[in-house]
């Protein structure tokens, strides 16, 4: 399968390298980035074409499918372009940066009559998260009553905003929590510390209420400093189950006893990204993507923008879902 990649930042570059090295039956044939020199460098590593625009890449005769790793504000228009061209696409989250935009993408895919888009919610492919979900859904800890999630990044991107903490970072939990518990989010309340006017509101804590009445806390920080850290604990009537820290070797030196914590989310989820890309390629070759759908992205956006309203002073905000279109049955 001949794949074009839009965006050669850290994520896009990793996808190019992963497809080239780890995914049988995949070939990166074209690359585009607004930084053309960067695009040429990444394309040169895999002997791919460097094209002059994303539109040219999506419609190119040597491209069968597209990976979109461009900045968030471009996701909607690129998803719509892929749908218009009939190109399957793996789209990094979020689906769009507005609810209207997310709905336009879903409506366009429904109008096409078939699934072409998959969202890059890589946690669904992570071995630890899959084991955690299996334990939860099997009843190993009894009836689930609560869960606690921590999601910390070492340092914020210079463009980070308070709303972006929810729409860009916490959106992973807005997808993974309903998937993990098999229980949609019904309401969200966001709390943030008092900061000087105009300063980034970091750390943020969301309280999610699910349709089945479970309560989930989600703490997200984009400036944790010490490293990248993702944790989840699920509490049931018969016990608890947690992710164990996926850190490497332990050190005892300089009056310190502990383990080094990495600061790179790509490294933490490297295996998940490999499995995600391999699964996506195989499913597209089989007829249609089977991973997280545009509808899953739409639902995550619904929670994210309800959370933005809550952060802005609305308090507890209930989350609408809407009727799932038929093409997403089973998603």
Notes on the protein architecture:
Residues 1-116 form the Gfo/Idh/MocA-like oxidoreductase N-terminal domain. This is Myo-inositol 2-dehydrogenase/D-chiro-inositol 1-dehydrogenase. Its EC number is 1.1.1.18, 1.1.1.369. It is an enzyme of class 1 (oxidoreductase). Keywords: Oxidoreductase. The chain has 331 residues and is of the alpha/beta class. It has two domains: 2-123 and 271-292, NAD(P)-binding Rossmann-like Domain (Rossmann fold); 127-268 and 300-318, Dihydrodipicolinate Reductase, domain 2 (2-Layer Sandwich), CATH 3.30.360. Helices cover 38% and strands 23% of the residues. The protein contains eleven helices and 15 strands. The strands form three sheets. A seven-stranded mixed β-sheet has the order 12-11-7-10-9-8-15. Helix 1 links the parallel strand 1 (2-6) and strand 2 (27-32). Helix 4 (75-85) runs parallel beside helix 5 (99-112). The two termini are 24 Å apart. The mean pLDDT is 96.
Mean pLDDT: 96
Q: Major sheet, described briefly?
A: 7 strands, mixed
Order of strands in the sheet with the most strands? 12-11-7-10-9-8-15
Query: Which CATH class of the largest domain applies here?
Result: Alpha Beta
| Total domain modules | 2
Query: Distance between termini?
Result: 24 Å
Order of helices and strands: EHEHEHEHEHEHEHHEEEEEEEHHHE
CATH architecture of the largest domain: 2-Layer Sandwich
In DSSP terms (H or I, runs of 4 or more residues), the helix count works out at 11
- Give the CATH topology of the largest domain: Dihydrodipicolinate Reductase, domain 2
Low-confidence stretches: none
What is the approximate shape? Answer: globular
* Strand segment tally: 15
Please identify the oligomeric state. single chain
Beta-sheet strand percentage? Answer: 15-25%
Organism: Nocardioides marmoribigeumensis
Domain GFO/IDH/MocA-like oxidoreductase: 129-241
Domain Gfo/Idh/MocA-like oxidoreductase N-terminal: 1-116
InterPro entries: Gfo-Idh-MocA_inositol_DH, Gfo/Idh/MocA-like_OxRdtase_N, GFO_IDH_MocA-like_dom, NAD(P)-bd_dom_sf
């Amino acid at each position: 399968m001949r794949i074009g990649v839009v965006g050669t930042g850290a994520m896009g570059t990793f996808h190019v390298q992963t497809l080239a090295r780890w995914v049988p039956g995949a070939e990166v044939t074209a690359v585009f980035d607004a930084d053309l020199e960067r695009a040429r460098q990444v394309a040169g590593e895999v002997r791919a074409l460097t094209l002059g625009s994303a539109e040219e890449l999506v419609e190119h005769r040597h491209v069968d499918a597209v990976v979109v790793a461009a900045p968030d504000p471009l996701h909607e228009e690129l998803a719509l372009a892929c749908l218009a061209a009939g190109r399957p696409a793996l789209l990094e989250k979020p689906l769009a940066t507005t609810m209207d935009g997310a709905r336009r993408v879903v409506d366009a895919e429904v109008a096409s009559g078939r699934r072409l888009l998959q969202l890059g919610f890589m946690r669904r492919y992570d071995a630890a998260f899959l084991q955690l979900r299996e334990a939860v859904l099997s009843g190993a800890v009894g009836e689930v009553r609560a869960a606690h999630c921590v999601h910390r990044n070492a340092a914020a991107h210079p463009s980070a905003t308070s709303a972006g903490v929810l729409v860009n970072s916490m959106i992973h939990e807005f997808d993974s929590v309903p998937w993990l518990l098999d229980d949609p989010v019904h309401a969200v309340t966001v709390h943030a510390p008092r900061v000087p006017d105009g300063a980034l509101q970091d750390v943020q804590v969301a309280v999610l209420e699910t349709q089945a009445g479970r309560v989930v806390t989600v703490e997200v920080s984009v400036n944790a400093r010490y490293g990248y850290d993702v944790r989840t604990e699920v509490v049931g009537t018969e016990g608890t189950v947690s992710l164990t820290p996926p850190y490497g070797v332990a050190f005892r030196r300089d009056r310190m006893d502990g383990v080094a914590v990495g600061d790179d989310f790509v490294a933490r989820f490297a295996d998940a990204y490999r499995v995600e890309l391999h699964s996506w390629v195989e499913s597209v070759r089989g007829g249609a993507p089977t991973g997280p759908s545009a509808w899953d992205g739409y639902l995550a956006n619904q929670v994210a923008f309800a959370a933005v309203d809550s952060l802005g002073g609305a308090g507890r905000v209930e989350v609408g879902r809407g009727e799932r279109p038929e093409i997403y049955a089973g998603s």
